[in-house]
Amino acid sequence: MRIVTWNINGISTILQYHPWCESKKFKVLLDALDADIICLQEIKCRRTKVTKEFAIVDGYDAYFSFSRSKHGYSGVAVYVRQPLKPISAEEGITGYWTQHETFEPSLAIATDSMVLDAEGRCIILEFELFVLFCIYFPNDASEERRMYKMDYHQCVQERAEQLLRQGKQVIIAGDVNAMHREIDCCDPKNNMKEWGISNFQDVPARRWIDDFLFPKGPMVDMTRYYHPTRKGMFTCWNTKIDARASNYGKCRTRIDYVLASKGLEPWFKNSDIQPDFRGSDHCPVYADFHDTIEKFDPVGTKVHDRIRDHLTSDICSDPCQIAAVNFEEYSSKQKKLSNFFSAKRPADDDHASIESQASTTASQVSTFDSSENDCISQTVGATKADPSVIPIELSTQVSKLDTLTQANATNSVATGKTYYSNTKRKKLSVSKSKSPVDSNQSSLSSFFSKASVKKTSTTSSVSDGSKNTPPAVAEMHAPPIDSKQDDEYVDIEQLMKQHEQTVKAGTQWNALFTPRKAPTCNVHKEPCKEFVVNKKGVNHGRRFYLCSRPVGPQDGPDSNDYRCDYFMWQTEFDKKRSGNGYK
Question: Which residues form the GRF-type domain (predicted)?
Fold first, then answer.
């Protein structure tokens, strides 16, 4: 069984990294981690921005905690691979949002419980074997935040120790935002100088984690448990200088942990970092546990205990509000906008019979409309000749329409319900029928179609001189087609010249939109990488080129594999490329 923790620095941007950018599917990333429980920190997302792809992942159950104080900040998520299922799920470390009755922070914690849990930093999942904490600890960027951070650390310790006193085991997975020892820092001497201390442990957060871990405390740092003296085992790098590839730079730290209580030690199997997983300035950290261990039952008989038997629970409390499957937007209970525009079904059989009767009447009127149109088309010539004359057939059909309308009204009165839809249809159909359409009127499409040339002449009907009669069409004669006529002469040279001009114009446009070519460094003869000055000052916004290789030591035997000291401003390179006096 594997547990993974990873600070992804934004759930909406992680799929932009290789190799996840090839599939653009979040499930591919989760499957690649190959873990049963995946704890993610700093998802930086509001609930309204979480798409179904991230919330409902096939084969996993997702749990979310979002920041309430600042949107798009902090936030944690836990994905549990099915069929594993927790007994309960809780949001926050203090229990404020769930009105936890068995835990209350001590008076030593000055920060209010609502403030501690307002940033969405913790999810607690209780299993039969252990209680899992997925936590994104605060940083200590300022003095005010330092007090908030230490209150949060203290609350985590009190909550874990209470569970241990109750006989439960605890696992804390997340970004602790604190280095434990000097081996977890790339440059401990310079770091102590910046803090103004002589002992690396004198920072409050480092002292807390040292007292919380074994042998002083109840928790075990599983990665150091298996690699106690390994150097360079960092989990966070400076992405601006691409320091991860060479594991070099000033900002390399180990601040991501999987901490397990001492009582789970028989289940320990292995733990390590995964620096090859890209997508964030942090890398994943995993902890493996044995699937089966041997133990003795109360009678003294040796038995095999399977860990998955303790992680699949049929006991469920009230529906968990932080489980994505219970979100209203994904539960199929929320109405869609299209539901408000769909047709309503008949309420009872009486209504249905009336609708059937109305449809029958409508079909009769439709039949009448078609016959009326035929009648109008037959008498349209007479109507044009004398608009005051009304054909006898049309007057007869209008009388039939009045009779149908009265019959429909009688049926409506008899049933006690009034329906106006069919009557409106009849009136509309009559109004359309009473507007005769001139068959000789040109349609809109005729203005866009090619004129056809006829071989024989055609004559139009003779006009009687009225204003409504269209003018006669003049005769048109098409020249005879000679089947023995030779093919037209084609100027091949002219066509080749036009083709060359087209190709030249296309090349010029492509050159206009093609990214400019970067210079090559002097040592590796490789294209450089372009950067922009973000620091405020006289050079703010200026672009420059550096060697594209990762940063690394310059005095070692492999110094040629790392970034050389090549530097050039973009303006200087443009002058050199154009040859405007640059040497």
Answer: 521-573
